Amino acid sequence: MPSAKCQVPGATAAGATASNQQTELLGEPSITASTTIPLDRRPSPAIWPYWVPPFVWIVLNFIASSDLLSTGHTAVMLRWALGVLHLHVADVELLNHLLRKIGHFAAYAILGGLFFRAWRASLPEFRRAWRDDPATGNPVPSFRAKLWTLRWAALAVASAALAAAFDEWHQSFVPTRGSSAWDVLLDTGGAIFLQLILMTLWMNKDVARSE
C-alpha cells in the first residue's frame, strides 16, 4: 500500500520566509521570485587602444636615448636656455646631470602610468554591489569597476622596468651614450613612485561600470 505524503499548508512559504530571514542575517539582500537579475550582454571594449600609448612612449624614449639627447647635446641646449632667460648657474654640468636624471625618473613614471592603464583595461576587476530595481523595488546585483589593484601596479612596474633595461641595453651601442644599471633602478623607482600615488588616491575605490 503506497504511503501517503502529508503536506502542511503554508509550510513551503514558511520555509522560504525563514530562508530569506537567514539570508538577511548574513548581510545579503534576499532575492524573491520576482527579482530580476539582468544578464550583462554588453561586448567587451577593445583593449588595443590602451596599449598604443605605452609603446609610442617607448619609441620616443628609444629616440631620446640616441645621440640626439646625449650629455653633450643637452648641455648645449641648457646653456642656450639659460642665456635666453638671462640666468647664471655656477655649475652647468651639474645642473645638466640633475635634469637628465629627473627626466629619467619622470619619463618612466609616465610610462608606468600608461602601462597601468593598459593592464587595467586588459585585466578588469569588479566589486559586486546591490541596488534597488526601480521597476520592482527588489535588490539586484550591479558591478563596480575597481580603480587600483596590486596586480595592475606590479605588472605596470615590471613592464616599465623591462623597457628601462631594454633602453639601457640600446644605449650601450651608442658611442656618445652609456649604459648603467643605476639608471634602470632610477627608472623603476619612477614607475613605483607613481603607483604609490595612485594607491593613495584609488586603493579600495571603485566607479560605476561604464556602458
Distance from N terminus to C terminus (CA atoms, Å) equals 62 Å
- The tally of strands reads 3
**Oligomeric composition of the shown chains:** single chain
Output the radius of gyration: 29 Å
For the largest beta sheet, what order do the strands appear in spatially? 1-2-3
Apparent shape: elongated
Largest sheet: 3 strands, antiparallel
| Domain tally | 1
Give the topology string: H per helix, E per strand. Answer: HHHHEEHHE
Mean pLDDT: 81
Helix-strand category: mainly alpha
Helix content: 55-70%
In DSSP terms, counting alpha (H) and pi (I) runs of 4 or more, how many helices?
Answer: 6
Reconstruct the topology from this structure.
Blueprint: H1 11-25, H2 48-64, H3 71-84, H4 92-122, E1 126-132, E2 139-146, H5 150-171, H6 181-202, E3 206-208
Antiparallel strand pairs: 1-2, 2-3
Structure characteristics:
three-stranded antiparallel β-sheet; disordered N terminus; mainly alpha; elongated; 57% helix; 211 residues
Descriptive report:
The chain contains 6 helices and 3 strands. It is mainly alpha-helical. The protein has one domain. Strands 1-2-3 form a 3-stranded antiparallel sheet, with no helix packed on it. The radius of gyration is 29 Å and the shape is elongated. The termini are far apart. The N terminus is likely disordered.
